[in-house]
Each structure stands twice: as C-alpha cells, then as structure tokens.
Design a protein that fits this description.
9 helices, Aldolase_TIM, 8-stranded parallel beta barrel, decarboxylase, pyrimidine biosynthesis, binds ligand LLZGTKA7, alpha/beta, Orotidine 5'-phosphate decarboxylase, 8 strands, EC 4.1.1.23, about 230 residues, TIM Barrel, single chain
Length: about 230
C-alpha cells in the first residue's frame, strides 16, 4: 500500500473502548503519525473502529499478531486487508507455511495490499525468559532466525526491538521493514517492556517505524509528547 505519511511514529491506541480511542485520535494528527489498533481495542470495538480511524485519515497498523493454522491466518489477513489497514502482522513462529499462506491471501490486492509483518520476539521478553518457552539459543539469534524465515516467506518486515535493528538490516537488507515497539524517551518508565531503546537511538540503529504507546497516550499533552519525539529524531 502506498503511504502518505513520512513520520516513522506509530501511536499505540491501547484503550478499553472506541470512545476513548477516538478521543485520543482526535488529539493526534494523521500527518504526524500513524495509529495502531491492538488486541484490547479490537476485541472491544471491532472492525467498525478500524474503519472509523481509516475514515479520519489515519494509516492503521492492525496489530493482532495472528498465529494459527495457515488457512485460518490467511483468512484473517485477507479480512484485515478488506478493512483498508496499512499494516497487519502474524507471529513468525507460526512458520514458513503459515506466513506464505498469509502473503498469498493478500497478493491479489496488488499494490493496495497492506504491509505484512512478522513478530519475532516480543519486546517485553528479557533474554533470560526465552528458555522458559523452550528456546535455548541466545535472543539475538532467535530474532535473526525468525526474521530470515519471515523474509524468505515473502513478508515485508518484522517486529523486533530496536536493539536488534542493526543486525537485521545487515541480514535482511535495507528494504526489509523493521517495526520497533519498546520505544522510551530518556527517563520514561519502561513499564512491562524489557528491551527498550530511545527514539533517536532506534532510528540511528536502523529501525524504520517506532511504535509508541504510553509515553504519548499517558502524557498530559499527547500531541506535545509526539512532537517532542519527532523533534528528537529530526
Ligand atoms: O514485541 C512487541 C509487539 C507489540 N507491542 C505492542 O506495542 C505497543 C507498545 O506500547 P507501549 O505503551 O509503548 O509499551 C503495545 O500496544 C504492545 O501490544 C510491543 O510492545 N512489543
């Protein structure tokens, strides 16, 4: 999908309902950021809210991290594309067959299709937590392996921490999009994130998109917090 927005910032609208999400969107500016709809908001407010945001001029990242059998994920990604979203994602750990099915499902849309992104290792995961889910190799190796699998399966990029961005750019190439949550301006609370990076360091390290939630949505003036981040990365 051709994009109209030059800003790398994607604001995470993690809200309980459509009213709260739209109240926040109204304080933002579609020329200065994109917005992300995740599992909490989509479960509460559904496709109508996504279409409302698209109608208000926002490019929407539908962050539902699909992870299921190939046929189910293909159908879910197709349904997301029909909502007019700019980006949608699946878990890369769902495997090559699943990711290829997702890509094939949106291929008929040509350049109107959304970007299809694979989640590697969540930014809330600390390196020492990987063994508890059965992963014994070091975290950077796990991220690289999943990113490479995503690229070979036809995906447009991955979600990763900006800490891994430099290595992934070398491994997967400049055109492979790196979408990085866990962004925290200097001094901001990490919250439940474990692999955080400042906006400036993230872009310098090779990140293409910065996903920012609470540091913007929890600020006294969200638009000022967004503008401060944009100033930092100018
Ligand atoms: O690895 C991941 C994948 C997705 N997220 C999502 O990004 C935002 C981050 O919000 P903050 O308030 O800035 O922490 C949130 O919606 C997550 O679901 C992620 O953090 N890490």
């Amino acid at each position: 999908m051709h994009s109209q927005v030059s800003s790398p910032v994607i604001v995470a609208l993690d809200y309980k309902n459509a009213d709260q999400a739209l109240a926040m969107a109204d304080q933002l500016d579609p020329a200065l950021c994109r917005v992300k709809v995740g599992k909490e908001l989509f479960t509460a407010a559904g496709p109508a809210l996504v279409q409302e945001l698209v109608g208000r001029g926002f490019e929407v990242f539908l962050d539902l991290k699909f992870h299921d059998i190939p046929n189910t994920v293909a159908g879910a990604v197709r349904a997301a594309a029909e909502l007019g979203v700019w980006m949608v994602n699946v878990h890369a750990s769902g495997g090559a067959r699943m990711m290829r099915a997702a890509r094939e499902a949106i291929e008929p849309l040509g350049d109107k299709r959304p970007l299809l992104i694979g989640v590697t290792v969540l930014t809330s995961t600390a390196p020492e937590e990987l063994p508890e889910v059965g992963v014994s190799r070091p975290l950077p190796e796990q991220v690289s392996a999943l990113a490479q699998l995503a690229r070979e399966s036809g995906l447009d990029g991955v979600v990763c921490s900006a800490r891994e961005a430099g290595a992934l750019k070398k491994l997967c190439g400049e055109d492979f999009a790196l979408v990085t949550p866990g962004i925290r301006p200097k001094g901001a609370a990490a919250d439940d994130q474990r692999r955080i990076v400042t906006p400036r360091e993230a872009l310098a390290g090779g990140a293409d998109y910065l996903v920012v939630g609470r540091p913007i949505t929890g600020a006294e003036s969200p638009i000022d917090a967004l503008k401060a981040i944009l100033k930092e990365i100018q």
